[in-house]
Amino acid sequence: MYLPLDGRGPLHGQLVRSLKDAVLGGRLPAGLRYPPSRLLAQQLDLSRNTVLAAYEQLRAEGFMQARVGSGSYVVMPGAPVQPRSEPPQRVPPQSAYARRLRRYHDHGAMPGRGVPGVLHSFQYGVPFTNPLLTSAWARALSHAAAYTPPNYPTAQGLPMLRAAVCEYLSLRRGVQARPEDVIVVTGTQQAVSLTARVLLDEGDEVAIEEPQYFAVREALQIHGARLVPVPVDREGLRTDLLPERPPRLICVTPSHQFPTGALMSLARRRALLDYACRHDCWIFEDDYDGEFRYDAQPHAALCGLDDSRRVIYTGTFSKVLFPSLRLGYIVAPPGLRDDFVSAKWVDDFGSPAIEQAALAHFLADGGFERHLRRTAKTLKQRRDALLGALRRSCGEALDIDDSNAGMHLLVWLRGRSAAQGDAFIALAQRRGLGLYSIAPYYFDPPDRAGLLLGYGALSVAEIEEAARLFAACLAEMDFPE
Fold first, then answer.
1. Which of 283, 365, 426, 456 is disulfide-compatible with 407, CB 3.0–4.6 A?
2. Distance between CA 13 and CA 359 in Å, rounded?
3. CA torsion angle 82 86 88 91 (round to 10)
């Protein structure tokens, strides 16, 4: 406990004043237990008699209450005195990086946050949580905690996890990776941050999808990249619109484009790889929701077609397990591998070893594969329920971009402007339904009312009730023609 003594008068008096200041200033709140006298004497290098004398005076003045068999507790005599608070001081940004942080990122305005006070919310980005996963993961963590060495892990990641990731990618994503080329990271956000540091100087150009995931966009902008938006259609990135002056990096989500859900066609994938090879630029492949397709087998990742080693492939376990896990991976081209490992070391010395070991065992013993099968089945049921309910109740009023993948749908209010979409979102919130606009994911949003409807965290019954509320709001909305 930090208790400064002022050096004036007897030691017990100095201790009394210091403790009273801590109580009146709010550092020792009412109801908190005072330290035992012997312990406080040791901490402050005082005699125990000095502390006992101070405690006796605090009891006499009403700052302490003794409870038999429990100890002595802080009491606030009279009305509490509010601690003096200094007004926050806004200082100018202290670096170019800080200037870009303030320009591009606002914690209070991030899209996709939960809407408070609603009964149902179509919040996207919130994954399905399988109750069976909790106990399975607890067992894996318990085993890992008992057998994982307590020293620092390697910055690149535990070898057994990197090997397990390679086996999973070969089986599920068509990527033939070697453990020595895998770097374990905290997720996609760290992957894009490390990629920017390894490949980009301030002012370098990066081609990015339009629309795109805002967090990747902001990470690149804060790093100092100049972003070149390239439109997306139903076949993914428009490779025919890639810039004539080649960018240093191209960022894509080919297996399930966010937020449109588009699947990049094989012809576009080959054209993109050819472009990168001819122009000596790199591709950052975010394999977003590539595990969950409901119309056919998952498509092979772009990296699986890459013979020229231009693709930096990244995936995460946040959506398929749970976001709090904070584990993902990069498969780096061999020529960049050491740079990525060094950048990871500088960032945090390495991801948590116990969680890595638990995940490696979960992957190796088949638990992860069983979880994926159960999750895909449940998500398909929820997707089918949402599609069916929307088509039955308001099909004529909607255009639904069904991607047959992922955990959200993109829905357009037919013939309605962006402003009308905002008004509809506001009405729905007043009626207890959380809705989310697609507009924040564009550099130049279209004048259309587009909504992202996430269904991963809602049961079938909740989805049907939320869809009824959606239809009721749509019927209530008096759209001006």
1. 456
2. 57
3. -170
Residue 67 tokens, joined: 């409870």
- The residue among 478, 450, 468, 442 whose CA lies nearest residue 212 is 442
Q: Cα separation of 174 and 160, whole Å?
A: 20
Residue 71's φ and ψ, nearest 5 degrees, are: 130, -165
Among 365, 389, 406, identify where a domain stops. Answer: 365
What's the chain's length in residues? 481
Reading the block at residue 59, the tokens are 């009891």
Instruction: Report the predicted TM-score, pTM, of the whole model to 2 decimal places.
Output: 0.84
The number of angstroms, rounded, from the C-alpha of 377 to the middle of its chain's C-alpha atoms is: 24
Shared-domain flag, residues 407 and 301: no
Residue 446 domain-assigned?
yes
**Tens of pLDDT along 214-265?**
999 999 999 999 999 999 999 999 999 999 999 999 999 999 899 998 999 9
Q: Is the dihedral of CA 373, 378, 380, 381 positive or negative?
A: positive
- The reply to whether 311 falls in a domain is yes
How many C-beta atoms lie closer than 10 Å to residue 480's C-beta?
7
Bridge pairing between strands 226-233 and 205-210: parallel
Which of 436, 399, 410, 448 has the alpha carbon at shortest distance from 257? 410
CA distances from 226 to 223, 236, 248, 444 (A): 9, 22, 10, 16
Residues 277-333: pLDDT tens digits?
A: 999 999 999 988 767 777 766 677 899 999 999 999 999 998 888 888 899 999 999
Helix (H) or strand (E) holding 64: strand 64-67
pLDDT tens digits, 40-63:
999 999 999 999 999 999 999 999
Domain hosting 41: range is 11-74
Kindly report the CATH number assigned to the domain that includes residue 22: 1.10.10.10
What residue spans of 280-417 are helical by DSSP H? 337-348, 353-364, 367-394
- CATH number of the domain where residue 336 is located: 3.40.640.10
Q: Please state at what angle helix 367-394 crosses helix 460-476, rounded to 10 degrees.
A: 30
Structure tokens at 48: 């125990």
